[in-house]
Amino acid sequence: MLTVHDKAPDFTLFATPDQKVSLSEFRGSNVVLAFYPADWSPVCSDQMALYNEMLKYFKKYNAQILGISVDSRWCHLAFSQSRNLHFPLLADFEPKGDISKQYGVYNEAEGECDRALFVIGKDGVIAWSYRSPTAINPGADGILDALESLTNH
Amino acid sequence: MLLKPSVSSQDHAIGKADANLVIVEYGDYQCPYCGAAYPVLKELMREFGDQIKFVFRNFPLSEIHPFARPAALVAEAAALQGKFWEMHDAIYENQSSLSTDFLFELADQLGLDPTQLQSDLKQDSVEERVDADFESGMRSGVNGTPSFFVNGQKFNGGAENLLDLIRSNAS
User: Fold this and answer.
1) Could you name the active-site residues (chain A) (predicted)?
2) How many CB contacts within 8 angstroms connect chain A with chain B?
């Protein structure tokens, strides 16, 4: 798993059925990259709902939150609409889990990524990372602490 | 995970004021799990209210529960007329009927001054109070509702687990 001071590998993934997003587009902002196992599962749903309520706090730290899982862009669209999400969900779908593998959070046994958080600074370098134990929603305090220390120095 | 900030006189609390056991709930008025926890917490306070202080903090998930924040605001406004817990209880007891009109109906039933309530709801301080609770929850590692803290430490379980734990410690 990539960790503090590693350069965050760039990627380009579908964020909507017809629109791709690259990590490098966010250079100059902080990025919170939230890998989660699966759309619709209860823990992931709660976790994404929490981040969705926190958008104004992320904005305060000049941070963009991106969800990412191996689900397809159409699955993401339906999930996102059903939960009223206002941030992008990226489809690490084909080649399956390619980006999860690059970040070291792909779970071969499950065919999903693990639940892992990366806070990436404006310079594209990882400032904080965390892998959550199975089925545990990590909340957001770690993200906020990381963003706070990025903004302060 | 530690509760930040810790419980103070600013919090809405019931039970024993200077209890050694302090339980904090972060709750959303429209959350079905919070609704299910409500009678269990009532039972907890019925059995142990003379030993426990119970605190409620707001954690409305507005995007999935459109009436969660309005309900939180009305409860905070009710608090300004000294009826926080009456409103808190009335909302959870009627959770399935939540709507904006219904919140005012409840306020009426509780004998709140409607003019005062309307003017309090326009106060920034009421909004800020709900936001401050939400922010404290984020900082404390709240990841969904209800989330409980026992003596300032995050409790990894629901209301039933909490009641079981306290019952087994008491016996």
Assistant:
1) 44 (cysteine sulfenic acid (-soh) intermediate)
2) 45
Q: What is the CATH number of the domain that holds A34?
A: 3.40.30.10
Contact A47 B143 (CB under 8 A): yes
Say whether residue B139 is in contact with chain A using an 8 A CB cutoff.
yes
User: What does the pLDDT look like over B146-159, one tens digit per residue?
Assistant: 999 999 999 999 99
- CB–CB contact A52 B63 (8 Å): yes
- Catalytic residue at A75? no
- Domain boundaries, position B32: 12-170
The answer to whether residue A101 is domain-embedded is yes
Q: Do B138 and A140 touch (CB under 8 A)?
A: yes
3-state secondary structure of A102: helix
What's the pTM value of the predicted model, to 2 decimals?
0.94
CA distance A12 to A23: 7
CATH number for B116: 3.40.30.10
Can you read off the two tokens belonging to residue A20? 């791709």
ipTM: 0.90
Is residue B19 one of the residues assigned to a domain?
A: yes
Distance CA A16, CA B41 (A): 43
Residue of A84, A50, A128 whose CA lies nearest to B140:
A50
